[in-house]
Design goal:
Family: Belongs to the nitroreductase family.
Structural class: mainly alpha
Strand content: 5-15%
Largest sheet: 3 strands, mixed
Pfam family, one: Nitroreductase
EC number: 1.21.1.1
CATH architecture of the largest domain: 3-Layer(aba) Sandwich
Shape: globular
Cofactor: FMN
Number of helices: 10
Catalytic activity: L-tyrosine + chloride + NADP(+) = 3-chloro-L-tyrosine + NADPH; iodide + L-tyrosine + NADP(+) = 3-iodo-L-tyrosine + NADPH; 3-iodo-L-tyrosine + iodide + NADP(+) = 3,5-diiodo-L-tyrosine + NADPH + H(+); bromide + L-tyrosine + NADP(+) = 3-bromo-L-tyrosine + NADPH
Bound molecules: flavin mononucleotide
Distance between the termini: 105 Å
Helix content: 40-55%
CATH class of the largest domain: Alpha Beta
CATH topology of the largest domain: NADH Oxidase
Length: 311
Amino acid sequence: MLHTEEKLLNLEGRLHISIVMALFSSLTPVFIAIICVLIGAILKKTNGEKEKHETKSKPLSHPWVDEDLKDGTDHHSEEEVVDEEWQGLEENVAHVPFFAERYSEAEMIKRSQMFYELLNKRRSVRFLSDEPVPREVIDNVIRTAGTSPSGAHTEPWTFVVVQEPYLKHKIREIVEEEEEINYKKRMGDRWVNDLKRLRTNWIKEYLDTAPYLILIFKQVYGQLPNGKKKTHYYNEISVSIACGILLAALQNAGLYTVTSTPLNCGPQLRVLLQRPANEKLLLLLPVGYPKKDATVPALTRKPLEDIMVVM
Ligand SMILES: Cc1cc2nc3c(=O)[nH]c(=O)nc-3n(C[C@H](O)[C@H](O)[C@H](O)COP(=O)(O)O)c2cc1C
């Protein structure tokens, strides 16, 4: 009797094992598939992180865009930006009749042609003499730049005019130190190569010799009398337009400059010139007369048909 029971138990045990084995073998492809998917997901994540890390540690590919982000002198962290700190603009402004100048068609053609010819003579001049320039002219060209349109009429610009020789020299020291690193490390081979034909390098004698340096700051936000922050819509575009007008005004006055964007110098120059943290350096324009032996690269400009599309 006991013997028969044992046999039955043995039979039951074997049956269980074979059911489990059958179940396991039928599920094996499913397990393999699940494991493959898991491995795939882990590998993808690891690669993604590696890629992210590589992009971060790569030399900056667009350093001219990211300069603001690297302003370590700006203590305004993101968490500080609370909405109540910001205020909109005054709603009421009187609207007045507008009287426009009107020229005959012949006069318009003549004026536009003459203005083109004047601006077509503008060149970036990197050899400027120390011959003095009347301050009144500088005042007028900056007044002219201040006529620029701006997003919601926020006028988000500050033009810092430097005439003191010791300050100009300090600026030169900062710019040359950073520009040497820019040329040797930050800019990369292609950029340095593209500049070869212009024969530019990190030596900027004009920062000492030019009678004036105009440093143009964009105000990334404004400050109202009650201490609240004011949004400066499209501040970079607005200030860039003002700079274009300034360049035209300088040309009109018979003064020369080189549009310069000293990479990585913004924060140091801002601190040197005691500008607040909401101001970021956009351009540095040395202003003066060309040296007698000044040279410029023989560049040509695109003809009208290459830059204009009429539909
Ligand atoms: C946004 C911008 C940045 C520039 N940055 C520099 C610069 O850092 N150093 C420089 O020597 N020239 C600089 N230039 C001047 C250009 O090299 C110059 O405008 C170009 O070669 C055309 O020559 P032109 O101005 O004589 O027509 C810059 C021009 C622009 C518009």
